Amino acid sequence: MNKNFNYKIYFNFLNLLAKQLTKYYYSKLDKPFKISNKLKGKGYDPVTTSDKAFERFIRKKILDRFPGHQIMGEEYGFKKTKSDFSWVIDPIDGTRSFVTGNPTWSNLISLNYKGTPMVGLANFPKLKKYYLNKDEKNSYLFENGKKIKLNVNSKVSLKNAKIAAAFHGYLSFNKQKKIQKFIKIVNFPCFDALTYAQLAEGRLDVVVQCANKIWDVHAIIPIINAAGGILTTWKNENGKLAGNILASSNKLNHKKILKLLKPAT
Questions:
Q1: Alpha-carbon torsion angle 124, 130, 133, 138, nearest 10
Q2: Core vs surface per residue 98-134: b (16+ CB within 10 A) or e
């Protein structure tokens, strides 16, 4: 436990912010929006007017309450200060889902202390639920006025594991051919950050994703860790580095999957 870090302040702030974000969505953003492609013809990376509105809303809430803190957001860049505290924001994780009307998109917000993600919020306005950790040992699902403690399915063996993976065109066909043994045991699709949250809930046991940016994964790390899970890169480095990510519900399965993924690293 970090003595300089007061979990309660940030947990309370994010617990309230989750409700404010959902309210903001239904009062202001639940209407037609404009889409543009960030990659301008060299691929497809959509951004909407709603992404930008959400990020402005989140930044204002943080700045009002913690004016000295650093902020890094996907749409509006880095506000640098001398603070040890930095907020990492993905205003809409799953913009493709948002664009097509799938309800699995979320607002992801992480508070990092000296570079380490300490508290994470994954808020799902359309699903009317959110995931948030209270400290290093406790994370919760908040739904229908209930607060449910999250625990990974820590006893599951690899042969009985529910495994979700998505390569999203980021892993070349040649690399995919090298990890056929892994691909053969994948039995569930991925739905944005919701898939990671479902691992924390014990609904899935292994999640493998490619090309995560820091704002895709930082909020998820403390939620999964506090639920008893493990999250690293495919090279078994600290998950906060982002990139290709593996999350598992126990160490043994994590080691086995790292081995299966190794030919593609």
A1: -140
A2: bbeeeebbbbbbbbbbeeebbbbbbbbbbeebbbbbb
| Per-residue pLDDT tens over the stretch 51-104 | 999 999 999 999 999 999 999 999 999 999 999 999 999 999 999 999 999 999
CB 45 within 8 A of CB 37: yes
Domain count, the chain: 2
Q: The domain containing residue 127 runs over which residues?
A: 7-149
pTM above 0.90, yes or no: yes
| 106/96 Cα distance (integer angstroms) | 11
Q: Residue type at 216?
A: D
Give per-residue pLDDT as tens, 136-166: 999 999 999 999 999 999 999 999 999 999 9
- Tracing tokens 């543009």 back to the chain, one arrives at 36
Distance of CA 156 to the CA centre of its chain: 23
Count of C-beta atoms within a 10 Å radius of residue 245: 22
Say how many C-beta atoms besides its own lie within 10 A of residue 236's C-beta: 15
Both 102 and 209 in one domain: the answer is no
Token pair, residue 31, equals 């209407």
What DSSP line would sit under 85-123, residue for residue? Answer: EEEEEEEEE-HHHHHHT-TT-EEEEEEEETTEEEEEEEE
CATH number for the domain including 202?
3.40.190.80
Does one domain contain both 128 and 191?
A: no
Residue 40: φ, ψ to 5°: 45, 60
95 and 143 together in one domain:
yes
- At residue 234, the 3 state secondary structure works out as coil
